[in-house]
Every structure is written in C-alpha cells, then in structure tokens.
C-alpha cells in the first residue's frame, strides 16, 4: 500500500505540473496581440454571419411620427444585447411593431427613449426594460460594429508614440480588410425580426455601410499618416476593395482613398517619400 500510494502521488504531481505548464503556455499565447486580433476577427465573422442569416422580406414602414415612445426605466449603462424572443412575444401579444431606438452598443440612461410602438396597445416600459441587457461594457453577441471598434483600437494604440508598433497596426488592418470584403455585397438597413407567422414585430437599427467604413479607416488614417508601412497597407486594402466592390459601395471607399492621399500629402513633404508611402503593399513594407 505505501508503494502504491507513493506511485499515485508521484503521478498526480507529474500530471499537475504538466497541466500547469499547459495552462501557462495557453495563457501566454492568448496574451499575444496576433492571437487577440485573430479572436476578435473570428467573433466578428460570427456576428456578421448571424445577421446574414436573418430571413429576408419587405421592410415595414417606419414608425409613424405620433407613435407612442417608451422610455427606459432600468439602470444606466451600455445596451449590450436584447432578448429578441421576449420582445417578439411582447409585440405579438399587443399586436404591435416595436421599433428599437438605440443601437446595440449605445449608452442609455433612465428616461432615454428605447422603443417606438406602432400599434394601438403599447406594452409597459418595465416589460421592455426586462428584455434589455444593460451593462458596463459592450459585447460581441449582437453588436455588428464592435469588432471593428476593437480592431481599430488595437491599431491606433500600436501607432501611439509610447508603443510605436506599426506592424501590429498592419495586422489589424488585414482583418479589417477581411471583414469589409465580407460586407461588400450585403444589404444594409434596419434589421427586421419576424414572429413565427412571418409578421415583422421588431425593427432593430444597425450601422450602415458609410458608418462602418468611417469606423474602419478614419482613426487609423489619422494616426498612421506618418507611417509608410501603415499607409501602404491601407492603400492596398482600399485598392482591393474598390476592385471587387459593387457600384453602390464604391463612393465611400473612393472618399477614403482621397482622404488618405490628403493625409499623407500633409504629413510627407518630400514627393518621393509621399509616392513611396502611397504605393500599395499588402505587407506594408515587405
């Protein structure tokens, strides 16, 4: 028995050490910025596919100007997500269409308009508030633009004078490029949620193509105009997107291209350096 107990104890110690080493390795791996970027991009693609799989159909008319407006009665915070199933049941019970006023990711406070009701029997504000998940920060669950927000934050932090890591910014631009390419042929507009009979019961505002493009490029362009590695990668991304974009998506991309040239011109006085900084390069500088 003492020998058996000793062997078991040794094996358990060895197993514990092995698991501890694996835990440390996985934790260190997750702390590396490229893996953070990859995870954000993958979660963003999941959200984009979720919106893409929503059933299509004619959009309902906008809420009438005299529609009853329900005010938020819960705590202050960021609208993280909504319980779509519960809101659909509430709308069906009251034979109404609920038009959500704030977007997912907006900050709401008590008294903030949250729903405009197209119908004769508006539900109580408290019932609506119970279907809203309000917290201290945003989540990826239903937030279409939060992935872009995180990638842009990574890029501009990497471009700050304290960090000065344009390579990380280029890696973030790679993923922004990927996500925008996924959105080129998607239709934008209010998202309509239907009950089991196909009737629209909940209309959710989502960011449009123009606001997503602004979010994706504006801050990186402003912070990275003095980094040729970043501007070359932005130029390559815009050239590629313009090459595959349908006509209805091109004006916003062309505007970003003009603004990028203007920013680099203001930052780089030497014509040769300017030409070098605006030369398309998928790796930034090789």
Report on this model:
By secondary structure, this protein is α+β, with helices and mostly antiparallel strands. The chain is 54% helix and 12% strand. The chain has ten helices and eight strands. The chain has helices spanning 2-31, 33-52, 84-93, 125-129, 146-158, 166-183, 209-224, 228-244, 250-267, 271-277; strands spanning 68-71, 77-82, 97-100, 107-108, 113-118, 132-135, 191-194, 200-204. It has a five-stranded mixed β-sheet with strand order 1-5-3-8-7, covered by helices on one side. A three-stranded antiparallel β-sheet has the order 4-2-6, with no helix packed on it. The longest helix has 30 residues, at 2-31. It starts with a helix and ends in a 9-residue tail after the last helix. The mean pLDDT is 87.
Helix/strand structural class: alpha+beta
Number of strands: 8
Strand-residue proportion: 5-15%
Helical content class: 40-55%
Mean pLDDT: 87
**Separation of the first and last Cα atoms:** 65 Å
Cα-based radius of gyration, to the nearest Å = 24 Å
Low-confidence stretches: none
Biggest sheet descriptor: 5 strands, mixed
Strand order of the largest sheet: 1-5-3-8-7
Shape: flat
Order of helices and strands: HHEEHEEEHEHHEEHHHH
Total DSSP helices: 10
């Amino acid at each position: 028995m003492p020998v058996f107990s000793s062997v078991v104890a040794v094996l358990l110690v060895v197993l514990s050490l092995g698991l501890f080493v694996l835990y440390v390795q996985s934790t260190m791996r997750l702390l590396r910025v490229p893996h953070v970027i990859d995870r954000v991009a993958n979660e963003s693609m999941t959200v984009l596919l979720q919106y893409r799989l929503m059933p299509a159909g004619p959009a309902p008319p906008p809420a009438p100007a005299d529609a009853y407006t329900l005010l938020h009665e819960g705590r202050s915070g960021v609208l993280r997500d909504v319980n779509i199933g519960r809101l659909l049941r509430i709308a069906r019970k009251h034979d109404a269409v609920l038009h959500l006023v704030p977007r997912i990711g907006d900050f709401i406070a008590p008294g903030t308009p949250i729903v405009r009701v197209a119908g004769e029997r508006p539900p109580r504000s408290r019932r609506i508030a119970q279907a809203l998940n309000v917290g201290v920060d945003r989540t990826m669950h239903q937030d279409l633009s939060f992935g872009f927000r995180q990638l842009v934050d990574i890029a501009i932090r990497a471009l700050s004078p304290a960090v000065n890591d344009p390579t990380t910014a280029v890696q973030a631009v790679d993923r922004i490029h990927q996500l925008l390419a996924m959105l080129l042929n998607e239709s934008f507009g209010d998202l309509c949620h239907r009950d089991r009979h196909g009737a629209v019961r909940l209309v959710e505002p989502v960011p449009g193509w123009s606001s997503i493009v602004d979010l994706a490029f504006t801050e990186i362009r402003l912070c990275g105009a003095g980094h040729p590695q970043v501007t070359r990668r932005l130029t390559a991304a815009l050239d590629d997107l313009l090459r595959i974009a349908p006509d209805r998506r091109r004006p916003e991309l062309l505007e970003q291209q003009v603004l990028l040239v203007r920013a680099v011109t203001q930052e780089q006085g030497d014509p040769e350096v300017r030409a070098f900084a605006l030369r398309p390069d998928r790796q930034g500088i090789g």
